[in-house]
């Protein structure tokens, strides 16, 4: 799945399949300006910052079990969001510090370091990666991902895929080759 925020005419947190199909709103009320999003892949939670409502909140992948992690004026200066173990990590754009926030109760906020001009944060650690398994976009014997000549996107499950073409090409009638 692909998760994303939108704060256009109607602010929301959404999800869809990797090929853009099955678009679903998972948060569409009491939300104004969601600017950063992070996933807990193991427990299947979506965290987001709302800088207008000055809050950090969480829901499960279906948009249920919504909770506010923390609220307050300090939120309007946050950008970027990452989850690792018991904490959320974010960047305070006001003083360029990296903050660590306890994701279960919003307390234990600590400034960890200062950076010059940081706007985003990511945690790279083996435990944050889902276990690999075979999927529909693996290379075929000819080296083509999922048998697609250009781009392979996972669809509704890891066993289904959609082929797409690079700009300037159109998908052939076989649904796999680009012309």
Automatic annotation (TrEMBL):
SMART domains: LY
InterPro entries per UniProt: 6-blade_b-propeller_TolB-like, Cueball_EGF_LRP_Nidogen, LDLR_classB_rpt
LDL-receptor class B repeats: 1-43
Gene3D superfamilies: TolB, C-terminal domain
GO BP: canonical Wnt signaling pathway
Gene Ontology CC annotations of this record: plasma membrane
Pfam families found in the cross-reference section: FXa_inhibition, Ldl_recept_b
UniProt-recorded Gene Ontology molecular function terms: Wnt receptor activity; Wnt-protein binding
UniProt name for this protein: LRP1B protein
Name of encoding gene: Lrp1b_0
């Amino acid at each position: 799945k692909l998760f994303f925020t939108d704060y256009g005419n109607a602010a929301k947190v959404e999800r869809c399949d990797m090929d853009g199909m099955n678009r679903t709103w998972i948060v569409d009320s009491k939300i104004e300006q969601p600017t950063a999003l992070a996933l807990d892949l193991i427990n299947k939670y979506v965290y987001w910052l709302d800088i207008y409502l000055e809050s950090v909140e969480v829901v499960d992948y279906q948009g249920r079990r919504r909770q506010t992690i923390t609220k307050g004026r300090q939120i309007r200066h946050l950008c970027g969001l990452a989850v690792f173990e018991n904490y959320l990590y974010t960047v305070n754009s006001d003083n360029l510090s990296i903050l660590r926030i306890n994701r279960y109760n919003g307390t234990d906020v600590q400034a960890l370091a200062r950076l010059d001009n940081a706007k985003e944060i990511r945690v790279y650690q083996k435990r944050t990666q889902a276990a690999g398994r075979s999927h529909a976009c693996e290379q075929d014997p000819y080296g083509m991902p999922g048998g697609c000549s250009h781009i392979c996107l996972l669809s509704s499950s890891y066993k289904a895929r959609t082929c797409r073409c690079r700009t300037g090409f159109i998908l052939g009638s076989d649904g796999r080759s680009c012309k």
